[in-house]
Amino acid sequence: MSETAIIKIGDKSYELPIVEGSEGEKAIDITKLRAQTGYITLDSGYLNTGACTSAITFLDGEKGILRYRGIPIEQLAENSTFTEVAYLLIYGKLPNDAELVDWNNQLTRHTMVHEDLKRLFTGFPKDGHPMAILSCLVASLSTYYQDSYDPENPEHRQISMIRLIAKYPTLAAFAYKKSIGQPTIHPMNSLDYCSNFLNMMFAVPAEEYKIDPEISKALNLLLILHADHEQNCSTSTVRLVGSSLANIYAAISSGICALWGPRHGGANQEVLEMLISIQQSGLSVKQIVEKAKDKNSSFRLSGFGHRVYKNFDPRAKIIKKACDNVLTRLGIQDPLLDIAKELEEVALKDQYFVDRKLYPNVDFYSGIIYRALGIPTNMFTVMFGMGRLPGWIAQWKEMIESPDMKIGRPRQIYTGPTETSYADAKKKA
Ligand code: SDX
Predict the structure, then answer these.
(1) What is the pLDDT of residue 283?
(2) To test the ligand 1 pocket, which listed residue (307, 317, 344, 389) has its Cβ within 8 A of the most ligand atoms?
(3) For 263-296, what is each residue's pLDDT tens digit?
(4) Is the CB of 356 inside a 6 Å radius of any atom of ligand 1?
(5) Which residue in 337, 259, 273, 323 sits closest to 301, CA to CA?
(6) Euclidean distance between CA atoms 147 and 166, whole angstroms
(7) How far apart are CA 301 and CA 299, in angstroms?
(8) Pocket test for ligand 1, best of 67, 288, 299, 358 (most atoms within 8 A of CB)
(9) Residue 252: which residues within 8 A CB-CB, separation 6 or more?
(10) Out of 10, 16, 72, 349, which residue is the most buried by the measure of CB atoms under 10 Å away?
(11) How far is residue 313's CA from residue 298's CA, in Å, rounded to a whole number?
(12) SS3 annotation, the chain
């Protein structure tokens, strides 16, 4: 007999099924709650509400566990490449050698963008934020592929997924080049995914750009660590937009917008700006931590806290270690890393942070590595999006292919005025 939950409302009891996941997580299935009781549930911010079942990523916030398709993030970080992880997330298994070669070849052959698309850049102001530009350009890709973006057509899904993963680095690099007034550098089919991006970002026509394998390796690691994170804000946005059967370019463009927020992926840029302001303000780390605790200030310690991780973010641990390695290998002494480490130390001993289980998250150290790799601060969240793209796509594909997919449409509890007439309302104007 499967477990059930009993809800008692007034003198009536209602039995609801319990759903159990493969890792023992349990949920009360309220699919029939309103039909049975006339009641809905209310859960602002969805702290206690599951939007779907998913077989892609498993997190355990208490134990600091993160696995993609069952494989621990630590092992993927150690052994895999970003394009292999993208395949794993999207198709549910690691590619064999032949599949990986074919996958990489397909991605390589779709890195170029329509020449007309480059004209869109002329309309953006030089200092336009690249997240605005990326969301606009990704949505505009749908105008070039109107013959192949039907979400219910498997071939259209396949080619659109490849085009997105292949073209995102090209669009990101083009946005950067346009912002600094340099000519765009075209993708090179002889380069792997990360090296190609670095070349498009930092090469100039006037001389050959030498790709440092250490930098390419560090970029691979960062993209792997950002590749998916179950039903976070931007992924939930991609699912919701995709559930209306809007095309994948529209869904991903909305995910980019959601990621931009400083409470979400925009935090990596905020962290760097926070560390720089600490360095320049002469304020002590202790003073900054006090400011973050002050309820009268909206200031929060960027890169700290997490909706799910209430112990530590396994990605932050890996990135912190990589920070030391990358800076040492590149011979960079970055005082901001020292400030970050001191900030972490002070905060983790402070009762306010301990009580609220606030630990460094993925964004706390990532900006320091991006900076060491030469990526400009306002491109950090674009990098987060490059990493998260296969995760968004995998979650979108899982939803579109699920037989019981419905358009997402949450309910509400209305708290506005009860019925009144126009005349009465006019009198109160
Ligand atoms: C990402 O969901 C994901 O998986 C996201 C992500 C992914 O991979 O997709 O992991 C990526 O978005 C990481 C988070 C990046 N954001 C930041 O670093 C911004 C700073 N952090 C916070 O704003 C906050 O911690 C959130 C948004 C991350 C989580 O917010 P919650 O779960 O809604 O927690 P909360 O805002 O309700 O905070 C609980 C308490 C509050 O204090 P009280 O009202 O209980 O007194 O903790 C406080 C908050 O004020 N708090 C902080 C804080 N974060 C929370 N106080 C100071 N500094 C902070 N960073």
Answers:
(1) 86
(2) 307
(3) 999 999 999 999 999 999 888 899 999 999 999 9
(4) yes
(5) 273
(6) 19
(7) 7
(8) 358
(9) 138, 164, 238, 389, 392, 393, 396
(10) 16
(11) 24
(12) CCCEEEEEECCEEEEEEEEECCCCCEEECCCCHHHHHCCCCCCHHHCCCCCCCCCCEEEECCCCEEEECCEEHHHHHHHCCHHHHHHHHHHCCCCCHHHHHHHHHHHHCCCCCCHHHHHHHHHCCCCCCHHHHHHHHHHHHHHHCCCCCCCCCHHHHHHHHHHHHHHHHHHHHHHHHHHCCCCCCCCCCCCCHHHHHHHHHHCECCECCCCCHHHHHHHHHHHHHCCCCCCCHHHHHHHHHHCCCCCHHHHHHHHHHHHCCCCCCCHHHHHHHHHHHHHHHCCCHHHHHHHHHCCCCCCCCCCECCCCCCCCCHHHHHHHHHHHHHHHHCCCCCHHHHHHHHHHHHHHHCHHHHHCCCCECHHHHHHHHHHHCCCCHHHHHHHHHHHHHHHHHHHHHHHHCCCCCCCCCCCCCCCCCCCCCHHHHHHHC
| Count of CB atoms situated within 10 Å of the CB of 54 | 19
Contact 149, 160 (CB under 8 A): yes
8 A C-beta contact, residue 126 and residue 182: no
Q: Is 385 in the pocket of ligand 1 (CB under 6 A)?
A: no
Tens-digit pLDDT profile for residues 296-349? 988 899 999 999 999 899 999 999 999 999 999 999 999 999 999 999 999 999
The C-alpha atoms of residue 196 and residue 145 are separated, in whole angstroms, by 24
